[in-house]
Amino acid sequence: MTTPLRLGIAGLGTVGTGVVKIVQRRAGLLTARTGRPVEISAVSARTRDKDRGVRLQHYAWEDDPVALAQRDDVDVLVELMGGSDGPAKAATEAAIAAGKDVVTANKAMLALHGQDLAEAAEAAGAALRFEAAVAGGIPVVKALTEGLAGNEVERVMGVMNGTCNYILTRMEHGGLAYEDVFEEANALGYLEADPTLDVGGIDAAHKLALLAAIAFGTRVDFHAVELEGIERIEIADIEQARDMGFRIKLLGVAQMTGRGLEQRMAPCLVPADSALGQLEGGTNMVVLEGDAAGQIVLRGAGAGEGPTASAVMSDVLDIARGIRVSTFGQPASSLAAPTPAKTAAPAQFYLRMELQDKPGALARVAAALGEAGVSIDRMRQYRHTRATAPVLIVTHKCPREALDKALTGMAATGVVEGQPVAIRIEEV
Amino acid sequence: MTTPLRLGIAGLGTVGTGVVKIVQRRAGLLTARTGRPVEISAVSARTRDKDRGVRLQHYAWEDDPVALAQRDDVDVLVELMGGSDGPAKAATEAAIAAGKDVVTANKAMLALHGQDLAEAAEAAGAALRFEAAVAGGIPVVKALTEGLAGNEVERVMGVMNGTCNYILTRMEHGGLAYEDVFEEANALGYLEADPTLDVGGIDAAHKLALLAAIAFGTRVDFHAVELEGIERIEIADIEQARDMGFRIKLLGVAQMTGRGLEQRMAPCLVPADSALGQLEGGTNMVVLEGDAAGQIVLRGAGAGEGPTASAVMSDVLDIARGIRVSTFGQPASSLAAPTPAKTAAPAQFYLRMELQDKPGALARVAAALGEAGVSIDRMRQYRHTRATAPVLIVTHKCPREALDKALTGMAATGVVEGQPVAIRIEEV
Q1: Which residues make up the binding site for NADPH (chains A, B) (predicted)?
Q2: Does A153 share its domain with A117?
Q3: What is the least distance, in Å, from the CA of A35 to any CA of chain B?
Q4: Is the per-residue pLDDT at B207 higher than 90?
């Protein structure tokens, strides 16, 4: 094929601008690799008069992204506006209805409407691809969908929100409180307009739900993700975890178990010497575990102009090369409705609590654990500095329900001040 | 398409058996993902009567892999015999001549004949794919060819021979000499029949040459790889390197420079806290650096039945899905003949030598370095235990030629006992 592949780019923020730059600067390379020129026909964004550092005057302008998607000279809609509904969804639907392929970086839209959009795309013979929606520049959608296609996938894990990992590692290295680093990150522009998307784990949970769909051949089920953000992580936990050979990460885990599909996005302790435990700053890491391939670890930049634009281009160039793969790796109509696991797989837990300085206090806590069937792997009581003393406990593997029963029992002892912190220890 | 994709498997060793198992056990999954059944029509191996732990009686048997490749009921030749020439090459050529696709794990064959075979395949409209030839279960060929297709690749690095990394890490953790670990690895069956393929770096260099071709759009040029094995690494160097915050890895590096294409496979020092420096045992790691994506790190099992079979299946399932990508990412005829860089990029170097116990000895060594234009970053002289004292030097960045001049100058001082050890420090 030597017919050009013509793009319509909706959204000219960081990523959209990055895509324009690659198309302009690497034209020869892209043609050499795909066998056909890749061109931009038209663009759309909220503001037209803004210096984005790239030449746009040769491209048609559309105020309305739906009109962009419907243009005769657009073969592929590159949707980079974001937002789960509104213009992004409208433009995507319009493109699909017109039989055009869509490449998007929009994790929220796909996490909520992926099934419908994928079905519509397949019915229309259009491709709908989203490499850039998950873990930025890391080609993880491709690795999972195609690279591990011969595997029954056993587990998918990942640190997929760079901002959260930045905050956690910055707290650790600076000995800083969550609130202080949050403000710092905000001042640096690292946070979304609605920061709970980041620190609440929602953004990362969107990504996890998309990977789970591919991994297990199930419909995207974002609402079933057990979700907990990093807002309640204290520097004390980070330091105590480190002393015991762990680090705290906002970790997503998806696995198919006898109890159903388990999807969790929550702070976890991971061994400090594991690949996940060694991850610093804004970097992302995804771990794919297949029955044949074993454990594959992928690390790279999870955000930013270049990395995300690279992922967008990966999908665009697949289309230019004539590569057609179902959105979630198999026909959308064949994806099973997953049964969410009601309970998470048993795990070890880290507990931190403040114990009152009373005779027999520790014995009562230990008794509460024992009565709930939770046994202790390691325990440390520190010297009293106030009226209470910090106590750390690492449990043996137990179901979360047993732990919750123990926590209730502990509260009833009257010797534990406030609410104990309980964090899952993930085997990675 | 619901027509089955029919495989002919040539070679029923570990990997071939692994492929048979996946096709047999995961039939439903493979059909769901590709939209068509994947079947085995015929197999071929050196010995027919051997229990391989899999049922083969429903497949036709061919003694001659060329006959297997030519069978009417074979759509894809899966070449898992190995060997750069002989039956592997003959069968591959026969399949291509018959217009059939070929999936191979044969790095030696492609490193030496990749250009000819890729050109023949393209002329015949056949696919020739080799995911399993590089880094076992890690989908690195796909990540580089497709995932990073929008990038100008800047550098590709990798620890791609698990046996060498096993030997080096085992030496380190056991405080053992190279010879002892070599014997141990041999007894465990970790080494190739010709162990220089592993420890001499040849196997890893084959893989590097294949990745370089994709990365830089150049013809495979295995003979231009600057090659050095791990046979001369001493436990003293591993320990001294560690004390200075480095680890020794058999590292492959390919980069396009103003001086031409640089391809090196040699022991290097890398920072102990880098991803490459943290790699343990038989695991492989590949680092891809693109101008847009930045640094992508991929880690996984580099060998073994499951991982390698997983990679083979990745190519097979791509073909089943109708995915056609040029062998080296762009038409073979468009690959440029690379100009090999005559000299490697400047680097820091680690030097270890035995210095005679004479007044002014250290000054003379320092003078030899200075005269060659090599300046010292760090230096340590240890206490004399024999007639000589170990001296370690880390140089500032300098060209290899300057270092060689300094080494000649040192030899002329008459105060250095034997030959100094010089190992490149790679910036990773």
Answers
A1: 107
A2: no
A3: 8
A4: yes
In a domain? residue B39: yes
Alpha-carbon Rg for chain B, nearest whole angstrom, is 24
For residue B401, the domain's CATH number is 3.30.70.260
Residue B417 contacts residue B355 (beta carbons within 8 Å): yes
Lookup result for tokens 């580089």: B144
Contact A321 B325 (CB under 8 A): yes
Per-residue pLDDT at A192: 83
Could you say which of A113, A133, A153 is where a domain stops? Answer: A133
A41 in a structural domain = yes
Domain boundary among A109, A133, A157: A133
What residues in B contact A271, CB-CB < 8 Å? none
Q: What's the distance, CA B173 to chain centroid? A: 23
Are both B146 and B125 inside the same structural domain?
A: no
The 10s digit of each residue's pLDDT in A224-234 is 999 999 999 99
Q: pLDDT, tens digit, for every residue of B402-414?
A: 999 999 999 999 9
Cβ of residue B124 closer than 8 Å to a chain A Cβ: no
A257 plus A294 within the same structural domain: yes
With CA atoms as reference, report the closest residue to B286 among B129, B148, B96, B94.
Answer: B148
- B385 has a pLDDT exceeding 80: no
Which is nearest to B357 in space by CA: B408, B417, B407?
B417
- A410 exposure class (CB count in 10 Å sphere: 0-12, 13-18, 19+): buried
Domain assignment present for residue A338? The answer is no
Count of domains for chain A: 3
Neighbours of B394 (CB within 10 A): 18
Is A81 a member of any domain? yes
Query: Are A145 and A122 in a shared domain?
Result: no
Task: Provide the pLDDT for residue B157.
Answer: 98
Could you tell me the CATH number of the domain that includes residue B114?
3.40.50.720
Residue among A18, A295, A310 whose CB faces B300 most closely: A295
A118 and A155, same domain (yes or no)? no
**For residue A417, what are the domain limits?**
348-425
DSSP secondary structure letters along A336-392 = BPP-B-SSPPPBEEEEEEEEES-TTHHHHHHHHHHHTT--EEEEEEPPPSSSEEEEE
Residue pLDDT, tens place only, A159-192: 999 999 999 999 999 999 999 999 999 998 888 8
pLDDT for the residue A1 = 52
- Chain B, 141 to 160: residues with Cβ < 8 Å from chain A are 142-143, 146-152
What is the dihedral angle through the alpha carbons of B300, B301, B303, B307, rounded to the nearest 10 degrees?
A: -90
| Domain match, A86 and A157 both | no
Q: Tell whether B167 and B297 lie within a shared domain.
A: yes
Chain A residues close to B301, C-beta within 8 Å:
293-295
- Structure confidence at residue A387 (pLDDT): 84
One domain for residues B38 and B99: yes
- Say which of A34, A147, A334 has its CB closest to residue B314: A147
Give the residue numbers of the binding site of B for NADP(+).
10-17
CA distance B145 to chain A (A): 9
